[in-house]
Amino acid sequence: MTAFLPVILYLASIFWRPLFHAAMAAQAAYILSRGISLGRLPLVGLHDTLTFLSLATAVFSLPFHFSLKGQGGFLKSAALLASAFAVFGALSSQVDTPLPPVLRTYWFELHVVLSFFSYGLFGIGAILGLLYLLSPDTETEALQYKAILIGYLLFSLSMVFGGIWAFLAWGTYWLWTPKEIWTTLLWLSYTLYLHLRFRPWWTGKRIVTTGIAGYFVVLFTYLGVGLLMKSSHSF
Amino acid sequence: MYSVLKSIRTTNFLLFTLMGLLVYGAVAMPLSPAFRGLSTTALFDWMKTAPLTASWWLYGSMAVLFLLAVNTVACSIESVLRKRKGRQWLLTTSPQVIHAGFCFILLAHLVSSYGSFHKHAVLYEGYGVRLQSGIEVRLKDVSSSGESGHVTEMTATVVYRYPDGRIAEDTVSPNNPSFIDGIGLYLKKVATDPAPAALVLFSYEPGAPLALIGGVLFLSGILTLVVLKLQDKDRSLDYEV
Hints:
Low-confidence stretches of chain B: 234-241
Distance between the termini of chain A: 23 Å
Structural class of chain A: mainly alpha
Strand content of chain A: under 5%
Helix content of chain B: 40-55%
Oligomer: heterodimer
Largest interface: A-B, 52 and 58 residues
Order of helices and strands of chain B: HHHHHEEEEEEEEH
């Protein structure tokens, strides 16, 4: 029930905004309680990672909400996205087993936390892109760029930390698995976004659509590859 | 020719082409048994034996990455030359630091593709193996502990005997390898029954230091760029012709 409470609060916040903060607080408390009961960072398996992604999306939406000076549609969209992750997380089974030795390292924790922070920001970038398509405004496009740029920094940090961890754990910083290739594709898709933006032709709807398309790569890399393909990141 | 190589249009075209090749590879890899040994063999050794029907996208990716590296260097030189008299030298140099990091990472992969190896071995307590350098690696003891039927900690003590008679001892555990003569010794599993033994991995990754340098350069460049861009209000500064 506790895992479902944020879902209800996020959805209710669409109608009464203060509940958005209540949803975040409830979700943070839930994650904290799982962490205390497990004695570790609760970031293994779909239940915990989706819940964390939901909270990351919600938290990172706040500075953009203030930058947009309270444009209602943005926070409602963020609440919808956060609730979607939260409901799938609540429905997924929990992994309560002790961590295997290879996951008992700060490199793993940094790698995963930064990945989901970046996924949250890429989600914010996609929402801002959709808002731009509905109502074109240069400020919204500039905010999408900022969300993606910070997400790209965090994702790059996560990749480098993941490489260091892989070298210490598996003797190589690169493994030829579909997950690694899709992760590279995700990084390349936002690299392409950042480079396309240098070209005057790629302005307005074209560039924001590229930013939205990147988020589909995020979702497939996180959920599609993890669930459909065998890799070192299988759930 | 040089104007094509230094163009950001070329960058975008190459990135898009590379993505197409990698999408094919990511889909093809799980479907073909030819890729099974790829993560334990140096890439170029694997490519020598793999059928071209399985490896063509890797040849294509390498060709595109080579062009991308040339394009990156050309773009960086051009950008520095064009903006050298500008006042925002950090804004000019930070993308070039990112580019340098990217090139180091590519170089790391190239070096590892030539000379890396990853070999598993089962060592029984009191027994060992001899490396090509003549160093003998012997397993002294193993230990493990668990919780609810799951192994949570494991360690192994190994003894190195050098050809000149010197002896050294080290303890390995997951995420804590031991390095000898440039080769990493990684603990994968331990067993106490029927006899104390350890599954270990001998790994040589010659590109790792270059990859680390590349990672540090990339991150320092992107961090500087993000800080500067977040302060930048004028989007028109971004455009290039």
